[in-house]
Amino acid sequence: MPTHDGAHRMAPFPENSTVCVGSTDGWLALHRTDAATTAAGTKTKRHTFFLHNPFTATTIPLAELKDILDDAFFEWNEVYKVIIRSSCNDGDHLVAVMTDHTITSL
């Protein structure tokens, strides 16, 4: 977004606890961590991933990624990079995730 001095600055991420873990074609792959409480009352963290276009302010949740990287995964591991490839013609998407998880495959 342009400022009064002519400089262009990106709008802030949708949430304060959000970090960028990848980008492609104007889209940022973002990882957000929120405080949560389980049904048993245990405090935990909820991890969500989504694509965000800072030019249009459009945000798309990556629900499928949450199915693979559940909250238990993040008790011991971190996501370092997310790479997204898509085909606009057929709507298919490929998401690759690089983590520090070395014991077993996802």
Automatic annotation (TrEMBL):
Ranges of residues in domain KIB1-4 beta-propeller: 10-101
* Domain of life according to the entry: Eukaryota
Q: What is a single Pfam family found in this protein's UniProt entry?
A: Beta-prop_KIB1-4
User: Record's PANTHER family?
Assistant: F-BOX/KELCH-REPEAT PROTEIN-RELATED (PTHR33110), OS07G0500250 PROTEIN (PTHR33110:SF82)
What is the designated name of this protein? Os07g0500100 protein
Which organism encodes this protein? Oryza sativa subsp. japonica
